[in-house]
Amino acid sequence: MPQFAPDAIIEYFNLPGLSEKDLHVTLVSKGVNVPVIVLSRLGTEEDVIQTFRLGAFDYLIWPMREAEVVAAVDRFLNQMCTRREREHLTRQLKETSNELQQRLNELELFFNLGKAVAPIVNQRALFDKIIEGAVRVTETDIG
């Protein structure tokens, strides 16, 4: 099977012994997991339902008008754009959450460092505590 990655497949079969469902099962078994728009004649609704259970995106009754095909493809493209945008926003949210957590950890460290150094009157002990805190903030090995 040739290597390809279509965004969608529009399938119509009118072959005896081969249904849309058969093609969809074959595509999935070969790792081609793309949305399928099924074109089907009246009377093959049972095959169409099975194809939907296997993951088909939409179906149209043959013969159909060009506008119906365009509308089905447009629905698919809108859904894909929405999905990609949602995935992008989810990634951004996770990155922002991680950055905020890191900043919160740093602020907690500074707060705790402030509490630790406030009562120290010995200058040497004060500098040691400040260096220890700086090493933790900068994540260095030695200070």
Spatial order of the strands in the main sheet?
A: 1-2-3
The shape, in one word, is: rod-shaped
Distance between the termini: 60 Å
In DSSP terms (H or I, runs of 4 or more residues), the helix count works out at: 4
Instruction: Give the overall average pLDDT.
Output: 82
Q: Helical content, roughly?
A: 55-70%
- Low-confidence spans: none
DSSP strand content: 5-15%
Outline the biggest β-sheet: 3 strands, parallel
Total number of strands = 3
> In sequence order, what are the helices and strands, one letter per element?
EHEHEHH
Q: Which secondary-structure class do the elements indicate?
A: mainly alpha
Radius of gyration over all CA atoms, rounded: 30 Å
SSE layout and pairing:
Layout: E1 9-12, H1 20-29, E2 36-41, H2 45-53, E3 58-62, H3 66-117, H4 123-138
Parallel strand pairs: 1-2, 2-3
